[in-house]
Each structure stands twice: as structure tokens, then as C-alpha cells.
Design goal:
- The chain starts with a strand and ends in an 8-residue tail after the last helix.
- The longest helix has 21 residues.
- Strand 5 and strand 6 form a beta hairpin.
- Helices cover 38% and strands 31% of the residues.
- It is an alpha+beta fold.
Length: 162
């Protein structure tokens, strides 16, 4: 899967991450996520410097320090309108799979340069057809990037305070 970006779904201004199949039908997988996770993914995609490591940066740093490779992340399941994911980690040749929210897995994947996958069963249920024409896809991606930049420029830590 390719991470197309994060955007706000109108009219509710709900953050959504968009993944796109890199092979096959090129379906789009939209996953609703929380605001802090959207910001974490956006910061990583835009290479926004932070004065201190954010949570996902800390996780990546810990894994690197412990010699753990994040081999891939997989969106594994959609159950009762909730997506599930797994981190596939490798340490000293041993493979470990750890349950994760997709948003956290994606935020880590962006930082670690890790490939993102989705199970076919998930794509069959939640995947949406990509725009038919190449031009529509390029225009949509440009619009997503613009929305993304707008989100990053105006998001503040106080926006996520309880």
C-alpha cells in the first residue's frame, strides 16, 4: 500500500488516512483516525522538526536502540467498523507480531521507512475504487497535499488537549 496522505473529512472535520494499493485494482483504503495520530503522521510526512521526540519518534528510537527491525505493518482486519493492524518486528532473526491501531502503525511506518500492507479481506470490504483517469488521481493527490499542509500549518498541541 502507498500512504497517499491524511486529510480532514468534511463536514465533520474528522481526520482520515488514505492508503492506496500499489498493485492490482489500485483501490483506496480510507481509515478514520484521531486528531493526534493524524498530526503525528502529518509531521512525519512533512518532515516537521520537533524540539523533542514525539511518541512515535520515541518508539522508533527505542526499537532502533534495541536492534529491532520494523519489517512491515499490516492492516489485518475490519471488525464492527474498527480497523486492526499488526507490526511485524524482527530481532535476532525472531519474528514478533504485535497488535496495533492502524494509525499508530502507520505513524511508526512513516518514521521507519517501513512498507504498509492490507489484507485482501479488508480491501474487499472497505476498499474503494480509485478515480478512473490518471489526471483525476493526480489532481486528488495534489489537493490532499494542500489540505495536509493547511492542517500542519494550523494544528496546535492545545487542539488535542482533553
Amino acid at each position: 500500500m502507498e500512504l497517499v496522505g491524511v486529510r480532514l473529512e468534511l463536514p465533520a472535520n474528522t481526520p482520515i488516512v488514505l492508503l492506496k494499493e500499489t498493485t492490482g485494482a489500485g483501490r483506496i483504503l480510507p481509515i478514520y483516525i484521531g486528531g493526534p495520530e493524524a498530526a503525528a503522521i502529518a509531521y512525519a510526512l512533512e518532515h516537521v522538526p520537533t524540539p523533542r521526540p514525539l511518541t512515535h519518534d520515541l518508539l522508533r528510537n527505542l526499537l532502533v536502540e534495541l536492534g529491532v527491525e520494523v519489517r512491515r505493518i499490516v492492516v489485518t482486519e475490519l471488525r464492527e467498523h474498527t480497523f486492526f493492524a499488526e507490526l511485524e518486528l524482527v530481532q535476532n532473526g525472531a519474528v514478533h507480531r504485535v497488535s496495533s491501531r492502524p494509525s499508530d502503525a502507520i505513524a511508526l511506518a512513516v518514521r521507519a521507512g517501513t512498507p504498509i500492507f492490507a489484507e485482501e479481506a479488508v480491501l474487499e470490504v472497505a476498499g474503494q475504487e480509485a478515480p478512473a483517469e490518471e489526471e483525476e488521481t493526480e489532481g486528488a493527490e495534489d489537493g490532499l497535499v494542500d489540505e495536509f499542509r493547511e492542517f500542519i500549518e494550523h494544528v496546535k498541541p492545545d487542539d488535542f488537549a482533553p
